[in-house]
């Protein structure tokens, strides 16, 4: 089939299609790369914590820091336990090894 531009037009069309094909291949490669990175980080994150049943907390394997048993966010150490730093959670985890009690009971 002859176009108005002749052979030049066909070559221009073919190069445009091949350029679009290269862009699609690059987009697909980028998408697959991002997916592989996400999966690798998810697996690393899941295995980087150890559950401490006695404390009811997660312990980070590399740093040894405590993380919330509910949301896995870092905890702030208080004198008698650990406070979750997430604004959505704010759960307090009591330290079972703490000797003093912050609750004062008064007998009448």
Task: Briefly say what this structure is.
With 108 residues, the protein is of the alpha+beta class. The chain has one helix spanning 7-47; strands at 49-52, 57-60, 66-67, 75-78, 81-84, 92-94.
| Order of strands across the main sheet | 1-2-3
As a whole number of angstroms, the C-alpha radius of gyration is 29 Å
Assign a percent range to the helix content.
Answer: 25-40%
Estimate the mean pLDDT confidence.
78
**Number of helices, where a helix is a run of at least 4 consecutive DSSP H or I residues:** 1
* Order of secondary-structure elements: HEEEEEE
The total of beta strands comes to: 6
Largest sheet: 3 strands, antiparallel
List keywords for this structure.
single chain; three-stranded antiparallel sheet
General description of the model:
With 108 residues, the protein is of the alpha+beta class. It folds into two domains: 1-47; 49-94, no CATH class. The protein contains one helix and six strands. It has one helix spanning 7-47; strands at 49-52, 57-60, 66-67, 75-78, 81-84, 92-94. A three-stranded antiparallel β-sheet has the order 1-2-3. A three-stranded antiparallel β-sheet has the order 4-5-6, with no helix packed on it. A hairpin with a 2-residue loop joins strand 4 (75-78) and strand 5. The radius of gyration is 29 Å and the shape is rod-shaped. The model is unreliable at 104-108 (pLDDT under 50).
């Amino acid at each position: 089939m002859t176009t108005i531009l002749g052979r030049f037009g066909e070559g221009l069309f073919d190069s445009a299609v091949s350029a679009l094909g290269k862009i699609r291949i690059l987009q697909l490669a980028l998408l697959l790369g991002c997916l592989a990175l996400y999966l690798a980080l998810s697996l690393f994150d899941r295995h980087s914590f150890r559950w401490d049943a006695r404390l009811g907390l997660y312990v980070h394997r590399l740093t040894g820091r405590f993380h919330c048993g509910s949301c896995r966010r870092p905890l702030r150490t208080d004198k008698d336990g650990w406070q979750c730093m997430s604004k959505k959670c704010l759960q307090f985890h009591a330290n079972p090894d703490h000797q003093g009690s912050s609750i004062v009971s008064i007998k009448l």
